[in-house]
Amino acid sequence: MRNIRYNNFEKWNDEMIKKFDLEHYHNSSNFVIRFIESRRVKCVLMFISPSEKDKIIEIGCGAGDILGKIKKGSLTGLDISQYIIDRAKKRFKKISFIVGNAQNLPQEVKKRQFDKIICSEVLEHVEEPERVLKEIKKISRKESIVVISIPNEGLINKIKAILQKLRIFGLFFPKLSRKMNEEWHLHAFSFDRLRTMASSDYIIIKAQGVPYNWIPLRYVLKMKIK
Fold first, then answer.
1. Which structural domain, as residue segments, surrounds residue 95?
2. pLDDT given at position 179
3. Is 170 part of any domain?
4. Which portions of the chain are predicted below pLDDT 50?
5. What is the dihedral of CA 12, 58, 42, 50, to 10 degrees?
6. How far apart are CA 168 and CA 163, in angstroms?
7. For position 6, what pLDDT does the model report?
8. For labeling, which of 80, 94, 101, 177 is most exposed (least CB within 10 Å)?
9. CA dihedral 194, 196, 202, 207 (to 10 degrees)
């Protein structure tokens, strides 16, 4: 876990949301960023394969960019930020949004079980990612599909370093941090770290590199509980 300098996690997280503006990634004018994010979302949606009868929840839903693309099932979004949930509610009237901590899910979520559970680009931002995986297990059935995605920080940093050495990083990506150990990332993830972390409770059904397996800047995992 990286050095953290905050006293109130919720307040600090809101500051990070406003500073980094997630919409910049989903709707970026930069084709590369927009392409990578669209591939991630496409993979998540493919892995959950929603149906009309599904109860679907996204843990760490942000402003609802992924949930808003799901046209089937009963949809719930949870995020620790009241600020970002208020934005999501304005955008998507038919989705149920709840303010809550992924490390200790609110009772209104814990008392339910979901068919499909999404947690995309969240684990690196929380204090205890292991607890998030434990909480997700509590709301899962044996048949439930759990889809997790993480940034592959090692590879991303190598590519950023090459572009900086060539003096073109700032030209193409002026708004991106020069390394992935930006202040909002509390943990550095890799496929192996996530696999090890999940191994006691989950079975990995499929893993996909994003945008492609040969250049996995992100990993999306489709899992079930043991």
1. 9-152+186-225
2. 65
3. no
4. 2-3
5. -170
6. 6
7. 58
8. 94
9. 50
Q: How far is CA 50 from CA 56, 216, 222, in A?
A: 8, 25, 13
What does the alpha-carbon distance between residue 200 and residue 111 come to, in Å, rounded to a whole number? 23
120 within domain boundaries? yes
Q: Is residue 31 part of a domain?
A: yes
At position 126, the amino acid (one-letter code) is: V
Query: Would you say 163 and 181 are in contact if contact means Cβ atoms under 8 Å apart?
Result: no
Helical spans, DSSP H, in the chain: 9-20, 23-26, 31-48, 82-91, 107-110, 129-138, 153-165, 169-172, 191-198
Residues 6 or more apart whose Cβ sits within 8 Å of residue 75: 56, 57, 58, 67, 94, 95, 96
Give CA–CA dist 97/79, Å, rounded: 8
The CA R_g of the chain, rounded to the nearest whole Å, is 17
- 168's tokens: 């073109």
Query: Which amino acid would we find at residue 25?
Result: Y
Which CATH number does the domain housing residue 38 bear?
3.40.50.150
**Count of the separate structural domains present in the chain:** 1
Q: Is there a domain that residue 158 lies in?
A: no
Tokens of 152: 């592959």
